[in-house]
Amino acid sequence: MLIVMKFGGTSVGSAERIAQAAELAVKSAKEGHKVVVVTSAMSGVTNKLIAAAENAVAGEYHKTVSDELYEPHRQAVHQLMPNEAARRREALDSLRQKFERFETLCKGLTMVRELTPRTLDAISGMGEMLCAPILAGAIAERGVTSRPIEATELIVTDDQFGQAEPLTAETRQQTREKLLPLLEAGEIPVVTGFIAATKEGVQTTLGRGGSDYTASILGAALDADEVWIWTDVNGVMTANPNEVPEARTMREISYSEASELAYYGAKVLHYKTILPAFKQKIPVLILNSFQPTDTGTRVSVTGHPSSRGVKAVTSIRNVSLIAISGKGMQGIPGIAAKTFDTVAAERANILMISQASSENNLCFVVNSSEAARVMKALRVSLELDLLQNHIEDIVVDDSIAVVAAVGDRMQGAPGIAGKVFGALGTANVNVIAISQGSSERNISFIVGETQAAEAVRAIHRAFELDKPSQ
Ligand code: ADP
Ligand code: ASP
Ligand code: MG
User: Which of 85, 138, 188, 343 has the fewest beta carbons under 10 Å from its own?
Assistant: First the structure.
């Protein structure tokens, strides 16, 4: 089999964890599989890089920042490559080069005092570049030839910095050209997750948590047999285990369930991961690098639908509700069209839409980081409607969360919405707005942020998701 396996931040979070990741990759290679490894940055590193860039642009940069980031990587090199001095030296040299570039960029920021999305991508993507040579070295120490590969040489994207989208044909060609010969020669390439490059070679990133997406992009480009996501839980669970301690791992879910769950906040998978795998029907496995013998979750076509209808519950924070209201909206065509055109032009992602049947109110949810921009643009594009009093107000509420109940079997099953909202009523959770996608695989609704955890737990209890389904 050809397997693309991705290791998340905690799975490469220390020298010990990198050693374990190397063992897992080598084990599959020794079983006769062709293995491509995708690595995240060591846990916490991406956040620190972004914080350093933000501080630098505010005028604060001190060398200790770079020293602090360097230290865990240096230690990992010494611990993981005890045998060959040349290999160690090469890894340390590569680290030093990256840190020099990091320092130059940060010092530049203290002078220009402007952090563009493009520069932020150049800095935030460095964690993966620091980690890949270390993991490749650890694999080589175990007797299988391995080398780090920067995904800027493989994945070609548009120039939407911070959220770049791959160009499929170019990516497929470059990935096959570079990786297939290595795989034929029995090597394990270790590719940096999260980063990519435009056609012109400018570094981009695929969005926070995007290493999962890297794995499925490469899996699709290589026509891989399976994509494995090694993380720190036993697969995709019926709810966020931090929010619902009794949450259970689902052994099999469908592509559509995985995709809805990821889209509505299940952090275990980046929300775009499923699509490239789904298009080619490549199974995706979510596995625990801390418990590698556990079977984890398998994402496949059928996905073992649950007879209960609802299979899992998720929540998303850091989202904002934008509401447009006014008695004069009734019967005036085009306000919704103008609104959504404006949001699209701002390239903001809409997570949920709801309109009351009286037509007096149209509301939708976007990520909080995009809300101010969208509000500003709406005030301009709807200015005339505001002046003519078709619209009385455009308001934003940042203190909300979206909760979603997901399951393939919800389709056509009566009584599920009743049970969801009955459970919320019993738990005294106030529902602000509701939306059910036409796929009927998902009921999502808005609640106050402080009630989100209770809402998730109430639905989990009502559908007895802590018990195995038949
Ligand atoms: P990685 O660093 O491996 O990419 P992440 O932190 O991005 O890992 O994702 C794994 C985490 O996702 C888990 O530790 C868990 O806290 C969180 N999580 C949220 N919702 C779910 C869910 N439904 N199933 C499993 N994990 C979830
Ligand atoms: N290191 C990146 C992040 O923290 C990508 C990833 O871990 O998937 O967002
Ligand atoms: Mg992740």
Answer: 85
Pocket of ligand 2 (CB under 6 A): 8-9, 40-41, 46, 127, 193-194, 208-211
User: Span 36-52, mean pLDDT?
Assistant: 97
pLDDT computed for residue 119 by the predictor: 97
381: nearest Cα among 369, 391, 370, 371? 391
Q: What is the atom index within ligand 2 of the atom nearest the CA of 206? A: 5
Find out whether 467 and 247 touch, Cβ atoms under 8 Å. no
| Closest atom, ligand 2, to C-alpha of 47 | 4
d(CA 414, CA 248): 25
Q: Which atom of ligand 1 is nearest to the CA of 7?
A: 3
DSSP string for 103-134: HHHHHHHHHH----HHHHHHHHTHHHHHHHHH
How many angstroms does the Cα of residue 130 sit away from the middle of ligand 2?
13
Domains contained in the chain, CATH given: 2-232 (3.40.1160.10), 312-462 (3.30.2130.10)
**Ligand 1 mean position, distance from CA 233 (Å):** 7
- Answering whether pTM is above 0.85, one says yes
Per-residue pLDDT tens over the stretch 457-468:
999 999 999 998
For residue 50, the model assigns a pLDDT of 97
- Of 182 and 416, the structure prediction assigns the larger pLDDT to 182
Coil/strand/helix, residue 351: strand
* Ligand number nearest to the C-alpha of 39: 2
User: Residue 11 CA: which ligand is closest?
Assistant: 1
Q: Of the ligands numbered here, which is closest to the C-alpha atom of 41?
A: 2
Confidence bin at 285 (pLDDT 50/70/90): very high
Decide if 374 contacts 342 (C-beta within 8 A): yes
